[in-house]
Amino acid sequence: MEQRTEEVLSPYRVFSRKEWAALREDTPMTLTPDEIVRLRSLHDRLDMAEVEEIYLPLSRLLSMYVAATQRLFVAQNRFLGTMDAKMPYVIGVAGSVAVGKSTTARVLQALLARWPNVPKVDLVTTDGFLYPNAVLEREGLMEKKGFPESYDLPALLRFLTDVKAGRRPARAPVYSHLIYDVVPNQWIEIDRPDILIVEGLNVLQTGRLPKDGKAIPFVSDFFDFSVYLDASEELLKAWYVDRFLTLRSTAFRDPKSYFHRYSNLSDEEATMTAASIWTRINLVNLHENILPTRQRADLILRKGESHQIEEVWLRRL
């Protein structure tokens, strides 16, 4: 009885993989197997079945949401007697380190850009809005990199404001995972996209509200739809360690890599190092800042051991 009550009161409808896949209906597959391989991140298990059963139904749903938002925008302009430029539809993608946010964001971008009306779909990650390492080191925040306080939040909010206002072009800083730092004087230009995907660890976080009721913006205020990638802590840790071991023998071997010092670790040493970083930094960030925002998402994609999405939670309207 208690479980049934929780289901009735839940803000989400929960779908099994099979149930969600049936919602694809006649949505066409527009990606080739080779393209899918190029879209997936290290250790992700993205394949044709995952795109067909999870992302094509999501693409169909988003096409309906975008069309409905556009109709509402036209209706509001008519009501106000204004001629405002069409605002981009903004999709947020959140979740833990190693859960596969980047893959999801890239797949969505590729699918949405191939709708029949060929919309312009841009993608930015919030990594570029991290403070430079020099600032983080000066402020004693290098061990908090990826935590909310490590981001230049005012700059991120200005960027999103510019995008929503149709200012052209809006500029986002570039981040390099090789040097583990923001690249000085390099920018991504976002020029009035139809859809913008914003991917990051903490994009659904709100923070403490002011007691005086003052209006303050949060990153998620700019989202029209949001996705949270979810998995158990045990799986996230295992995926993080596996990724670290792979990078040790690939990207970390580049002398320019910030993590080059880890390239000669033995398997045992690398596993212990990765597990320590996970427990000391990423797990704390997950508990304190990321997981608490899960219930703010419009859609939760729950992953199982094979990296495949096993359940889809869609927020009720």
Report on the structure:
The chain is of the alpha/beta class. It has a single domain (12-315), classed as Rossmann fold, CATH 3.40.50.300. Helices cover 39% and strands 18% of the residues. The chain contains nine helices and nine strands. The strands form two sheets. The chain has a seven-stranded mixed beta sheet. A two-stranded antiparallel ribbon has the order 4-5. A hairpin with a 4-residue loop joins strand 4 (170-176) and strand 5 (181-190). The chain is globular, with a radius of gyration of 20 Å. The protein starts with a helix and ends with a strand. The model has no long low-confidence stretch (mean pLDDT 93).
Key features of this structure:
single chain; 317 residues; Rossmann fold
Q: What would CATH call the class?
A: Alpha Beta
CATH-defined fold name: Rossmann fold
Tell me the radius of gyration. 20 Å
Query: What does the average pLDDT come to?
Result: 93
Order of helices and strands: HEHHHEHEHHEEEEHHEE
**Major sheet description:** 7 strands, mixed
Distance between the first and last residues' Cα: 25 Å
CATH homologous superfamily placement: P-loop containing nucleotide triphosphate hydrolases
Helical content stands at 25-40%
Helical element count? 9
Spatial strand sequence of the major β-sheet: 1-9-8-7-2-6-3
Category by helix and strand content:
alpha/beta
Net shape: globular
The count of β-strands is 9
Low-confidence stretches: none
Domains, number: 1
Question: Beta-sheet strand percentage?
Answer: 15-25%
The CATH architecture would be 3-Layer(aba) Sandwich
